[in-house]
Amino acid sequence: xxDLVANVRSQxxxxxxxxxxxxxxxxxxxxxxxxxxxxxxxxxxxxxxxxLNHCLRGTHSDDDEKFVADLATGYRLPFVAIRVDxxxxxxxxxxxxxxxxxxxxxxxxHEVARRRGATGIAVAHHLDDxxxxxxxxxxxxxxxxxxxxMKASGANLVKRxxxxxxxxDIERYLKERGLTWRTDESNSDTTILRNSIxxxxxxxxxxxxxxxxxxxxxTAEILAADEELLxxxxxxxxxxxxxxxxxxxxxxxxxxxxxxxxxxxxxxRHGLNELRGDLRCIALTHLEAIDRLAGSSxxxxxxxxxxxxxxxxxxxxxxxxxxxxxxxxxxxxxxxGEGSYPLENGxxxxxxxxxxxxxxxxxxxxxxxxxxxxxxxxxxxxPFSAGDRFTPLGMTGSQKVKELFINEKLPLxxxxxxxxxxxNGEIVWVAGMRxxxxxxxxxxxxxxxxxxxxxxxx
Length: 458
What we know:
Blueprint: H1 4-10, E1 19-23, H2 28-38, E2 46-53, H3 59-74, E3 79-83, H4 86-93, H5 97-116, E4 120-122, H6 127-140, H7 144-147, E5 158-159, H8 167-177, H9 193-208, H10 212-241, E6 242-245, E7 248-252, H11 253-257, H12 261-276, H13 284-295, E8 300-304, E9 309-314, E10 317-322, E11 333-335, E12 339-342, E13 348-354, E14 367-371, E15 379-383, E16 389-390, E17 399-400, H14 401-407, H15 412-415, E18 419-423, E19 426-430, E20 434-435, E21 448-454
Parallel strand pairs: 1-2, 1-4, 2-3, 4-5
Antiparallel strand pairs: 6-7, 7-10, 8-9, 9-10, 11-15, 12-13, 13-21, 14-21, 15-18, 16-17, 18-19, 19-20
Helix pairs in contact: 2-8, 4-5, 6-9, 6-10, 10-12, 12-13
């Protein structure tokens, strides 16, 4: 058996004494990951076991949660769990179950990391997952950016220590260590694309190359290195060619057209990502349309891209903006105490007293636990207004709410829908996003208020 502990240690993904949230589903991969990280004695990691119950498999999901809780107890590690109705979330957001589950998991893991001061989130993706991801993206249509797939040290704290380890090595490790794990029977459902690729396509490809998973993973690694270089070159060109003022990114067309077409397309992606924070629904056809607009003989023209993105040519300037959000009608609501309060933006705010939770991090972005002593009634709830400031949980200085929206990559058109909860004139919760430091629940907190916002998009 390969020494997986030495393999993980050699990657230098963690610093000595680092606090790390370990995502544990109860499956073979995550059980192995937890065991390996617990054996990195030299690093002395402070591990927190996090589990999201997807509520998709009835009592089986509950049994998974109990299994992981018992596992954490066996390792004498703190355990944090949350239950999310992923099926309802998928329906409400128009997502597949896989995408909805992934979004819910990462939102939860990041919330736990934020509340516990963790600087890493360890997930159990391995070499076979990498190969499957490459094939999924290839089948759906992707360039080098998409095919570079996952990195061992990804964005937003995420780390993948097992990315160069195959599934067979992981299962061999578990058996030699005498460890048990849970099996999710839905993993054999070949109506799900990833499962179909795992159980049907890859076995066929192995007839042509028995090491196809290793070759696909190696290809992803090579492309990732190329992407890192190209991103660096693009960022340099962007700094040289683009100007960013307020909520607009613009280029001088003459200088832009002197660059290679491939770099121009990357610059457009970079500019759009600067504005919205992601590239959802932006395809090659949209980038090519922008390039045609830049090279057009028409001095003035516009493009409407998916979502709220707009591209405008005005003589020698090409500008990227977000559509101005409609200004919502001002409203206010006074919350005198416990209850359920419909808001004028179509959301509902619920407030009730609860026993102090063992760990306030068991909340989520849409659920917050506040100290009633620190945030007494009556509350005032209203939409965001320019100039609003608050002190976020864990900070000492104030921050503009607008800066929070920008850091969270919240699109302009959604910002006016986010309710702000005030107590004694101070923001105690930016609903669905961040608690104010003043309302923090501590070990000395008496009455605790569970606050939930329903039907919110962030």
